[in-house]
Design a protein that fits this description.
Length: about 425
């Protein structure tokens, strides 16, 4: 189970500070669990985790088996939560270089930008390959994925013919309404559901995340088991609950002027999980003139770029460091008889031992430099831990946002750039 080490925040906070928020955190958690807070029509994610394989999960498994048997490449079309969740899961569990392994279908992502260069690169990768696509959108009209969808459908139809192309298009959308639902019904595409009461950034434990995971060789059942265990174990109404600790401390630090949170990890494959977390907290809390700015860093690499700023810059940030159990398979450092690099003192030491000392040294340096640090300790990098992490952060975010006094489940500010863009593009009605 996830554990949160909060021993390195006490330079800025005190234990009485934390205990004084107990009723406030209790009320926020109760508001969330009882479904009586702002945005309560988007609380379906709370009950998604299950210990049993559902009919939808069985359909996902069968679809993934077909895709894995007939496709070299699987293209996931989506933006925001429709893109970040699946990519976070695949890169964390399968690694950054998963597409080079050759065992599983390559998974690429489209519809999350408007870059001509990125689109042309994808087209080149698809040339001569069998591929299928998964269109993820509640509406089907969001500009970036809609443009990619139109082009990819045309490519499939040209390659396989209209009827065979339909068997390679999988749609994840609203069960009843929207342009994408209409398209899928008219064309006969296989469809999966985004529940109407689950918002995009909380949708990773639906088919939005589970189908791409399954195609990449990650068991949706194992992901759900981890999330279900987290759901059960985090249903504790006291500071024994790490979600309570996390939500309370980040709000207390914010009130002390710490307006930036850096989510850090020593695993390069964590980069897109950090991006998912960034959207989750950024869209949930950044409104009404409030919010902790969610930033991310990859250690140790970013210690050679952001390290100076973190160590001695403005004291307006705190860190949350995610730590995984060391891998079972070890890598040792060998002796070099010339020792020109001066590393022989590490002979026989394992790489994870060196990493642990880097973590401990960085932790001490940052705390001494006035940066409060929370350390989130979890298990091995696998599907079970993945589900646990997703649910932990979703629950913590809901509690934290209610403590902040904002609606965690809307994002009115996202529409402003779209309106300006549509006007400049000459879209009817703008």
């Amino acid at each position: 189970m996830i554990k949160l080490d909060i021993s390195n925040v006490w330079g800025d906070l005190s234990l009485p500070d934390l205990l004084a928020t107990e009723q406030e955190v209790f009320n926020a958690h109760k508001l969330l669990a009882d479904g009586k807070g702002p945005g309560n029509d988007f609380l379906g994610w709370l009950n998604l985790p299950t210990f049993e394989e559902t009919d939808e999960m069985r359909r996902i498994r069968r679809a993934a088996e077909k895709i894995r048997s007939d496709s070299d490449i699987f293209v996931v079309v989506g933006i925001g939560g429709s893109y970040l969740g699946p990519r976070a899961a695949i890169e964390l569990v399968k690694g950054q270089n998963h597409n080079l392994r050759g065992k599983d279908p390559q998974v690429f992502f489209a519809g999350n930008n408007l870059s001509t260069r990125a689109w042309q690169e994808l087209c080149a990768l698809l040339e001569g390959k069998d591929f299928s696509i998964n269109i993820i959108s509640k509406s089907g009209t969001t500009t970036e994925p809609a443009i990619a969808t139109r082009a990819l459908r045309w490519m499939l139809e040209r390659k396989y013919g209209a009827e065979k192309a339909k068997k390679r298009i999988y749609v994840t959308t609203d069960p009843n309404k929207g342009a994408l639902r209409q398209m899928a019904t008219e064309e006969g595409y296989e469809t999966f559901v985004i529940p109407p009461n689950v918002g995009g950034r909380y949708s990773v434990l639906t088919a939005v995340g589970l189908l791409p995971m399954a195609v990449a060789g990650i068991s949706p059942v194992d992901v759900m088991l981890g999330a279900a265990r987290a759901r059960k174990e985090l249903d504790v109404r006291s500071f024994e609950n790490p979600a309570w600790q996390y939500a309370a401390i980040r709000n207390l630090l914010y009130r002390k002027g710490k307006s930036i949170e850096m989510l850090c990890c020593y695993e390069p494959s964590f980069r897109y999980f950090a991006g998912w977390w960034q959207q989750l907290f950024g869209e949930s809390e950044g409104k009404d003139g409030k919010g902790i700015f969610p930033a991310t860093a990859e250690f140790t690499a970013d210690l050679h770029s952001l390290g100076q700023m973190i160590q001695q810059g403005e004291r307006n940030l705190f860190e949350t460091v995610v730590r995984f159990t060391p891998p079972r398979k070890k890598t040792s450092i060998e002796v070099d008889w010339k020792n020109l690099d001066g590393l022989n003192y590490l002979e026989g030491k394992t790489l994870d031992f060196v990493e642990e000392q880097a973590f401990q040294g960085t932790l001490s340096a940052h705390v001494d430099g006035g940066v409060p640090v929370m350390v989130l300790q979890t298990d091995e990098v696998d599907a079970d831990t993945l589900g646990e992490l997703f649910y932990f952060f979703e629950l913590s975010c809901g509690i934290s946002a209610y403590m902040l006094g904002v609606n965690p489940f809307n994002q009115p500010g996202v529409e402003f750039y779209k309106k300006n863009m549509f006007k400049l593009l000459g879209k009817p009605g703008y």
